[in-house]
C-alpha cells in the first residue's frame, strides 16, 4: 500500500524570514486557513519568541485552525520553548519544533562548545518541550554538513528523550541528492529507535537542489517534507511545496502520496506572491507563467497533435489557466493556424502559407504576437480566401 508523505509547510516561518516578506497577523491567519484547505499536514506558524507580533500570529492561528497540526519554532532554550507552548496553547494539535546546530561550524564557531555539550542541550530541549505536548519535533541544524555517526547519536538520544519527529535540515543547501538520501538511509539503518519517530527533510536551495534532495530523502526513508509555497525561504529559498507534491504525484512507482489538493497550487501560489510581495519567476515549475506555454514551432506542432508530447502535467490538475500557444518568431504554421482559428479565422493550408510570411515580418519586430496583431494580419489579407 502507498505510504503518506506528510507535508510540513513553513511558508509562514522560514518563508516569512525573507526580507520584505514579513506578514501581519491578519495576513498570516488568512494564509494559514488557505494552507489548511490545501491539505498540508503541519503549518509552521512562526517563531513565537522572536517578536510580540509573531507570538500573536501563532496564537490566532492556533485558535482558528481546526484539523491541521500547528507548530511553533524555538531554539534549544527553556524560555523559547515556554513561549512557544504559550502561543500554541489554543491549538487543537500543537507541535513544538526545537533544536540546535550539530555541525562543527555550529558547535565550534557559533556555540564554542563540544559535541557532548550539544548532545546534552538537544536532549534537555526535547524534555522541556515534552512537558507541554506529546508532539515534539527536533531539528539538527546544519545536519547536511554534520558527520553521519555523530548525527545518529544525537538523533537516537533525542528520540529517547521523547522527540516524535526528527528534522534533518540541509540548512545551507550544500548536499548532493545522493549524499542527502544516503544520510537519511544511514539514520534509518543505524539509529536503533528510529521507528519511534518520523524523519523529516528540510532542504534549502542554495545550489538549486532542494527539491531533488527532499525527494532523495523520502526515497531514503523520510516521511515528512518541510517546504514553502513558491519555494520562498532564507537566501535561495526552501524546497517548493508545489514541486515535491507533483513529483510524488507524477512518479507513482515511488509508492508515496500526499494529501494536497493540487488544484489549489496555482491560485495559492498567486495569493502568496501577492501577499508576500515576491513575484514568481516565469519559468518556475508548476506555478510559473510559462510552465504551460509553448512557443517554438517544433514543440507547438507536437503539442497540438497530442498535448502529452510536450506536457507531463495537465494544467487543470494544478489549477493553472490552461496551456498557451505563444506566437513568436520561433513559432510555426500549425501554431499560427491554431491561434487564427481560436479567434474565428478558419484558413486553408495555402492561406496560412501566405499569411505566415507576413506573420514572420511582424514577429521579428516584437517579442510576442498578440491577438490584435493577428486581427491586423487578417484584415490585410485577401478576404475571399477566408472559408468561415
Ligand atoms: O534551515 C534550518 O535549519 C531551519 C531550522 C530552524 C529548522 O530552518
Ligand atoms: Zn530552514
Provide an overview of this structure.
There is one protein chain. Helix 2 crosses helix 3, helix 7 runs parallel beside helix 8 and helix 11 (297-305) packs across helix 12 (333-342). The protein has helices at 25-38, 52-64, 78-87, 104-110, 115-130, 148-161, 177-190, 210-220, 241-250, 265-276, 297-305, 333-342, 349-365, 371-380, and strands at residues 3-4, 6-9, 42-46, 69-75, 94-101, 136-141, 165-170, 198-203, 224-227, 256-257, 293-294, 324-325. An eight-stranded parallel beta barrel has the order 2-3-4-5-6-7-8-9, surrounded by nine helices. It has a two-stranded parallel ribbon with strand order 1-10. Strands 11-12 form a two-stranded parallel ribbon. It has two domains: 3-260, Aldolase class I (TIM Barrel), CATH 3.20.20.70; 293-385, no CATH class. The termini are far apart. With 388 residues, it is α/β, with parallel strands linked by helices. The chain contains 14 helices and twelve strands. Helices cover 43% and strands 14% of the residues. Bound molecules: 3-methyl-2-oxobutanoic acid and zinc ion.
